[in-house]
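User: Run a structure prediction on this.
Assistant: Running it now.
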Amino acid sequence: MTAPVSPRVLAGVGVGRRAVVGPVVQVREPVEVPEDTVVVRDGVPVPEEELADTVLAAFRTVSADLSARAARSSGSLAEVLGATAQIAADPALAARAKRELAGGKPPVAAVRSAVGAFIDMFTAAGGLMAERVTDLASVRDRVVAVVAGQPPPGVPDLHEPSVVVARDLAPADTAALDLRYVLAIVTELGGPTGHTAIIAGQLGLPCLVQVTGATSLEDGTRVLVDARHSTLEVSPDDAAVEAVAKRTEAERALEEDTAPGATKDGDPIDLLVNIGTAADAERAAAADDARTVAGSGLFRTEVLFLDAQTAPSVAAQQKEYTAALAAFGGRKVVVRTLDAGADKPLAFATLPGEENPALGVRGYRIGRIHPQLMVDQLTALAAAAEATGTQPWVMAPMIATPAEAAEFAADARAAGLAKVGVMVEVPAAALRAREILEQVDFVSIGTNDLAQYAMATDRLKGDLADLLDRWQPAVLDLVAATARAGTELGKPVGVCGESAADPLMALVLKGLGITSLSMSLGAVPAVRFALRHHTLEQCQAMAAAALAATGPTQARDAVVALLDPTTRDLLA
C-alpha cells in the first residue's frame, strides 16, 4: 500500500479571500531561439534586404494582437494590455532593432538587443518604471516568436478548471486566459498591487504572488490555493479539501444579503464598485440584483486614454461617460479625472526621460503641461451629466496641496459640475486634509499610493510587500487624520484602494469615520457581512486597537480578537 503524500505548504502574498482546489497548469516559458536563427517564410529563407521589414512587421503584429485583446477586455485588464500594446508599437523600439540589424546582427539577436536596451534603462530608473520590465520582456519574447515562426509564450489551452502558475504573468498572458477554466493565479514574482494582482481582483480570482518554488510544481499536481491565508498547499488531504468546500458554500451564502451597507446597529456606509469603462458599469449594474451596491466609487477614466495615440475627443469622452452614468441610473458615480503618467504612460502627454516618474508629472500634474486635457474632460463629463440628468461626483488624483484642490474645484464648478472632490494619495494631502476639505465637497483615499508614498516603497515591488501591508499603523494614522477632518467638517471621506475590499479593514475604516468603500463587485458580500455583524461601537474599538498596535501583524491580530465570535471563521 502506498503511503499518503504529506502536504507541503508554500507561502506567498494573498490577493482576495477565496480558497480553491485544482490541478496546476504551468504557463509556457519563451521558446529557446538561437540568436543566429535563419528567418524562414513559406519554407524559404527571407532575403537579407527584407529582414528589416520582417522584424518591423513582427512588432506591428504583436502590437495589433495586444490591442485586439485590450479591445475585448475591460477595466484594469484593458488598461494594462493597451499600455503593453503601446510598448510594442513604440517607434523607438523598432528603430533600435533596425539599427541593430544594420550593424550586422541577425534578426533574433537584433530584437533581443533592442528591447534589452530599454529593459536596462527601465530597470535603472527603478520605481514604477521597473514594473514595465515584465511588459517589455513579454513584447520581446512575442516578437522573437513571430520572427522565428514559433508559437508565442503564455498560457496553454485549458480543458478543465485549473490553477494557473507562472514565474510572472504579463497582461497579455492574463488576457489569453479562458476564464471558464481558471480557478486561481499563482506567481513567483509580482506584488500585491502589481498588474497580475489587480487583474486577478477585477476578475474575481484568488491570487498568490511571491510564491517561491511555485514553478517547480509539475503540471497536474493538485494544490489548494488560499488567498486569505496567503498559502499554497501541495497535495492537500481530504479534510483540507472538505474544509474549502464548506468555506466556499458559506461565502456564497453571503451573496443572498442585498441590504444597503450599514453596521449592525444601522449606521450607514456606502458600498460601491470600481469600474474602468462603460462596459464595466453595465456589467456591474446587471450583476447588481444579487449584490446591491450604492453605485461606483471609482471610475478610472484613464482607460479611455491609454491605448490612444492622440487625446480622445470631447465627443468620444462624452459618449463613454454618458453610457457609464446611464448604467447606474441615479446612483452615485465618482469619476476620477485622468490618472496617467508613471506606470501608465500616455503617448501624447507623458514627459520622456523622467528620472523618477512616480514622483513626477502624473495625475493632476499633467495639467501643468497639457491643460487642455483637463478642460476637455470636464466639458465632456458635464455634457454627459446633462444628457443623463444625473449628478456625477468628480475628483482629481495626485493632489498635494489645498491650493491645488481649490484650483481643481474652481475649474470643475466652472464647467458645470456641482459635486467636486480630490484624491488623498500623498501624505501631504492627508496631513492637511482639513484645509483641503474646506475647498472641496468630499475626498477619497487611494490607499495603494498613500502607502507607497508614506512608506517610501514602490507599490509594484513584490519583495517589499511587507512594508505595503494595509495594516501598517503609519498608513492608518494618515487615513485616520483624513477621516477625522471629514467628520469635523461634515463632509464625506471614502476609500477606493485595496483596503476597502478587506472585510476586516472595512470594520476599522468604518470605525475611523470613513463614509464609503469602493471595491471590486466580488468583494462586496464579505464586506457587507462584516459590517452588518458589528456595531459602530465595535468598529470604533477595532479602529482604536489597530492604531495602537506596533506593527501590521499586531494591528490585524488586535482586530481579529475583537470580532464577533460567530463571524470569526468567515472573516479571520
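The chain has a mean pLDDT of 88.
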